[in-house]
Specification:
The protein is an alpha+beta fold and 213 residues long. The protein folds into two domains: 88 residues, no CATH class; 88 residues, no CATH class. 20% of the residues lie in helices and 26% in strands. The chain is built from three helices and 14 strands. Strands 3, 4, 5, 6, 7, 8, 9, 10, 12 and 13 form a ten-stranded antiparallel beta sheet that branches. The longest helix is centred in the N-terminal third of the chain and has 24 residues. The protein is globular and about 45 Å long.
Length: 213
């Protein structure tokens, strides 16, 4: 019905809309209740600087080349984060697999073996290059990778610590030069059972201190 140019919505139509809104709200609440949120992961520094509960190349007692898959699962369950993890099979290396925990922690296993091959994690607390060097000394080398994106070329850089079988990822920067400063943060840490996994002679440069690479 129209009255003086204004539409009048019947009362029963309004009641139906309100009823549908209530039903949808109840359904949304039931879905949220039925699917609990995954636990958050407070990784801290992963023990990289603190050594708690262990230092490199160890994360929470998980050591490349030593820890088995069953032991990894037990450790993740004890920390209450295994519910946020899933096992993934590699699409590129036959027989290779890993446990992915919300893209914050990734544990890979040796092909045809249940022992850990590599440990990757993103610290949730701040770690800077200056703090790393203060504790472990200068890195053994620097990997400098130019990213092949013609429209917006960038550079990826990793610090290499061979004695700890560790590779530390720094934030990317725009081409052509990469500036390493004391305050440059560490984005991720990677431990491996194979020294060749952290070195790449084609892109490996000598550490020359802070400055441009």
């Amino acid at each position: 019905m129209v009255l003086k140019g204004r539409s009048i919505v019947p009362g029963r139509y309004v009641r139906r809309v309100r009823a549908c809104s209530v039903i949808l709200m109840c359904l949304a609440l039931s879905v949220c209740t039925y699917f609990p949120t995954k636990p958050t992961m407070d990784i801290g520094d992963g023990g990289f600087l603190s050594g708690e509960p262990c230092g490199p190349p160890c994360l929470w007692g998980i050591v490349p080349g030593e820890t088995t898959e069953a032991e990894v699962v037990e450790i993740l369950e004890q920390r209450g984060i295994y519910a946020a993890c899933e096992t993934r099979v590699s699409k590129f290396v036959e027989g290779s697999k890993g446990i992915d925990c919300g893209s914050r922690v990734f544990i890979s296993f040796e092909q045809g073996d249940d022992r850990v091959q590599g440990v990757y994690f993103k610290p949730s607390s701040s770690i800077t290059v200056q703090e790393v060097i203060a504790k472990y000394g200068a890195p053994d080398g620097v990997l400098v990778y130019p990213e092949s994106v013609p429209e917006h070329p960038r550079i990826s850089v990793y610090l290499i610590y061979s004695s700890m079988l560790s590779r530390l990822e720094l934030p990317t920067q725009e081409w052509p030069g990469y500036i390493v400063e004391p305050s440059t943060p560490i984005l991720s840490v990677f431990y491996t059972a194979q020294p060749s996994d952290i070195r790449d002679s084609l892109f490996l440069k000598r550490w020359i201190g802070y400055g441009e690479y």
